[in-house]
Write the structure tokens for this entry.
Amino acid sequence: MAMEIGRDEVRRLLAEGAQLIEVLPAEEFAEEHLPGAVNIPLKELDRERTRELDRSRAVIVYCHDYQ
Amino acid sequence: MSPRAASRLEALGFDQVYDYAAGKADWGAAGLTLEGRPGPRAGELARADTPTCLLGERLQAVRSGVGTSGWDTCLVVDPDRVVLGRLGRRALAREDDVTVEAAMTAGPRTFRPDVRLGALVGWMRGRSLTSAVVTTSDGRLVGVVRLDEAEARLAAGP
């Protein structure tokens, strides 16, 4: 099970090269997102879409809040 | 939603997956920069024609008024239109004729008019709600944002 992390840990991991993925629908991503994030909506999160990710680096996922 | 995404990534073979569950609401609340294009705000979609009632009114009288309005909810306000509670579908369907105060759900979650519409839609979807209450910072009713209308507005673009 993935580790839940807080804001400070997000910043530390990003500084180390982690990838940041927003899983909300595209229109919500377009409106606002964390700097450097890419958008892969949860419904599209499959083997094909994740080819754009680097498996050797950490991946951080987020949405709006505790949904 | 992000826990499901994290689980999905692990199932796809990723072994360094982290879940920032507090998400962009937490990031923005901390005053950190968010990128994107300015989008519509909750106040733009808040409908002021939402039915309202007062604490001392009788449920049957309120129900008959709401029934012809096209809404399935009624907000309970004080004489200054400060939101005190909400009568939802279940409360409005009660057969007994109690006071509004006895039937309402007190203290509904409210949002300010400057909240981004996309964030509000995310909040409603996450809780399977079809509407959200918008008030001023001193609690006075501005209106109600309906999920279907908010989604249509976002789909229409800036």
